[in-house]
Amino acid sequence: MANIESATLILRSGDLIQNATNQYGSCDQYITNMTWNNINLRTLLGTLYDRYDLFNICLSNITQSNGSGAFGEDNNDLIVQVCMTGLPFINQTYGVTDCCNTNIAVAGIFEFSEAGTNTVNYNHTHSLTFSKQQDQVNLNIYYQRIFPSAYNGVTNYAVKTTTSFPEVIFKFKIYGVDKTEHNNGGRIFKI
Predict the structure, then answer these.
(1) Is 49 helix (H, G, I), strand (E, B) or coil?
(2) How far apart are CA 171 and CA 82, in angstroms?
(3) Architecture of domain 6-190
(4) Per-residue pLDDT tens over the stretch 44-70
(5) CA separation (Å) from 83 to 92, 107, 180, 189?
(6) First-to-last CA distance in the chain?
(7) How many CB atoms lie within 10 A of CB 87?
(8) For residues 187 and 50, what is the distance between their CA atoms, to the nearest angstrom?
(9) d(Cα 146, Cα 144) in Å, to the nearest integer?
(10) Computed from CA positions of residues 166, 159, 147, 60, in that sequence, does the dihedral angle turn out positive or negative?
(11) Per residue in 139-161, is it b (16+ CB within 10 Å) or e — as a string?
């Protein structure tokens, strides 16, 4: 097995305060929209930061704390897209309904357990490429339903709930992306 240098990023919803902002970031009242502030990419990436201009971030796993069995309005609120903003993503964010790139990337799909804990491990085949444009970023993670619902005749992917979702831990691996020159002068990127 190849020894590929990487960095690990752990984001815990428990570090944030529901419906408030603290020194680490902010969280909505339902733990469905979380932002971690002032993540120092230079420190996080260490030696990778100076060696690479592009990086792949891969969701390694999500672990959910014990579910109360009372969150989400229906089962479609429990299967979510884990959406992420805050990094300068490259070619990862095309929206078919908008017909353009956005600043939102889907890091993975997760199904919450209504009773008990749940951990999903991902195999790093889905990576999101970003560039380093600044040393510090605010990373936002929020959930969207995978099946839309209609609110007042408008299609919406927002999770519907009146009760808090369980606390979660997100683990990401970050790899530098090598640049290789083609004979014709074009570039390709590989990990």
Answers:
(1) helix
(2) 12
(3) Sandwich (2.60)
(4) 999 999 999 999 999 999 999 987 768
(5) 12, 6, 30, 24
(6) 14
(7) 25
(8) 20
(9) 6
(10) negative
(11) bbbbbbbeeebeeeeeeeeebeb
76-131 pLDDT, tens per residue? 888 999 999 999 998 766 767 667 777 889 999 999 988 888 888 888 778 999 99
What is the DSSP secondary structure assignment for residue 75, as one 8-state letter? G
- Asked if 188 contacts 182 with a C-beta cutoff of 8 angstroms, the reply is yes
Q: Is 165 helix (H, G, I), strand (E, B) or coil?
A: coil
Angle at 151 between CA 150 and CA 153, to 5 degrees: 70
Residue 175's CB: how many other CB atoms inside 10 A? 21
Nearest by Cα to 68 from 16, 114, 108, 18: 114
Whether 137 and 39 have beta carbons less than 8 Å apart is answered as yes
Residues 138-188 pLDDT 10s: 999 999 998 887 766 677 888 888 899 999 999 999 999 987 643 444 454
**DSSP code string of 77-136:** GTEEEEEEESS-BSS--EETTTTEE-S-EEEEEEE--SEEEEEEE--S-SEEEEE---SE
